Amino acid sequence: MWGGIAVVAVLCVWSVAQTSAGWGYALRVLTPALALGAVLAAAPLARLAAGRARVVALGLVLLALDAAARSFFLPQDFRASSPELLTGRWRDLGESNDAAYRHRLWGILATEAADRGIIVDHPALHAVFSALHAKVIPLVSPQVAFLFSKNPRGKPRGI
Q: Fewest C-beta atoms under 10 Å: which of 23, 43, 48, 146?
C-alpha cells in the first residue's frame, strides 16, 4: 500500500517538470493517478473509521463540500478556496467569463476561418463562435475524424 502511495507521489512530482503549464496542469492530467491514490488512502482511513465512524463521516462530508465549492470556479481558477464562496467572489466569475468571451480575438478568428470552420472543444467557445456566425465544428464531429485516423504508414495524421 505505501509503495503505491509513493508511486503516485513520485508521478505527481515528476509530471510537474514534464509539463510547460506548471503544477496545476500537471495535476489535471494526473487524474487517474490521483484516483489510484484515493483508493490506496482508503485502506488506512477504513482502519481509522472502525471506532470513529461518525467523526470520519463528518470529515468526508466536509471534504466533499469543500470540493464542490472549489469546482464552482473550474476551469478558470483551480486554486480557489471554498471560503471564497462566502465572500461573494463567485458572483464576479460570470462577469469575468462574459468579458473573456467578448474579447476581440474571437471575432478575428471567426473572420479568418470564414467558411472553413473552427474546431472547438468547449461548449462556451461553441456558443461564442455561433454568435459570431462562424462555422463551428465540434472536436468530436465526424468532419474532423481524419485528424485522429492513421495514414497508410500507421502514424497519426494530426493537424
A: 146
